[in-house]
């Protein structure tokens, strides 16, 4: 990929990027489809039931059937919605979930780009999803949708800060905002060990950012019907849901790059016979997939928080801990230098 992009822009470069982007989009949608299936199966297992088991062997085609149903469903638009924003909101919510994959390095050679401030760009692009959620809640002309959207914005602001501050501890150790440089800095030891406190803060804040249980206050069925999704159906509803599940993999990939050594298979450097034969992107993908399924376990384990508990936990617990972790990392780095 870097070799193709090395020269000046031309038709070949454009065609290559278009094909690569379409392939990436197809793979991401395939992941989202079966992440929903795995989510439902895991919930069934943890709740002592079977989960999807009717369509296809072991229910493997259930999500495909659900997708066909959503595509064929009649699109009912309420009379008083703000139509331009109503139609645009699902696209704004989904597009950033796809774009962040263009920033992530999958191996030392497989990447779309190599931005010097890749981590900053990832955070900036991923935050745009909240704009789509707010647009959807506002344009629906429904009080429950608006309350859900406002909760989503408040939650994003509250948990984005400790997430960024915890990630800054990794930046201090690596000395760079470039995600490739951060992975290369973990050649000898993964950052999850010296940054275990930062990682725990990052993990909790990431689950809240992903709007997964127990932090799914913006679409709490018992309080807000469906939150900002109340007036959406068919393909528009599917785009919102796909965006949520795609972000699971994106956040798992970011955690892999920051804390779990990226494409390096062993946590303390070195190698074992046969490991070098496996391409680096496979190690990266396996770690990202495993991490992306952790929120499913949270969903089956923890009860939903109240909105006041949600905000207090971020501002009074996660933020102070992340700041202390960053301060300790800076002191360590200064004395180590």
UniProtKB/TrEMBL annotation:
It catalyses: a quinone + NADH + 5 H(+)(in) = a quinol + NAD(+) + 4 H(+)(out). GO terms for biological process: aerobic respiration. It is a multi-pass membrane protein. It holds the Pfam family NADHdh. PROSITE patterns: COMPLEX1_ND1_1, COMPLEX1_ND1_2. GO terms for molecular function: NADH dehydrogenase activity; oxidoreductase activity, acting on NAD(P)H, quinone or similar compound as acceptor; quinone binding. It is found in: Cell membrane; Membrane. The keyword Zinc-finger does not apply. GO terms for cellular component: plasma membrane. The chain crosses the membrane at residues 14-37, 85-104, 116-136, 157-177, 189-208, 245-266, 278-298, 310-335. InterPro entries: NADH_UbQ_OxRdtase_su1/FPO, NADH_UbQ_OxRdtase_su1_CS. The keyword Cell membrane applies. Its main location: membrane. It is an enzyme of class 7 (translocase). Keywords: Cell membrane, Membrane, NAD, Quinone, Translocase, Transmembrane, Transmembrane helix, Ubiquinone. PANTHER family: NADH DEHYDROGENASE SUBUNIT 1, NADH-UBIQUINONE OXIDOREDUCTASE CHAIN 1. NDH-1 shuttles electrons from NADH, via FMN and iron-sulfur (Fe-S) centers, to quinones in the respiratory chain. The immediate electron acceptor for the enzyme in this species is believed to be ubiquinone. Couples the redox reaction to proton translocation (for every two electrons transferred, four hydrogen ions are translocated across the cytoplasmic membrane), and thus conserves the redox energy in a proton gradient. This subunit may bind ubiquinone. Belongs to the complex I subunit 1 family. NDH-1 is composed of 14 different subunits. Subunits NuoA, H, J, K, L, M, N constitute the membrane sector of the complex. This is NADH-quinone oxidoreductase subunit H. It comes from Brockia lithotrophica.
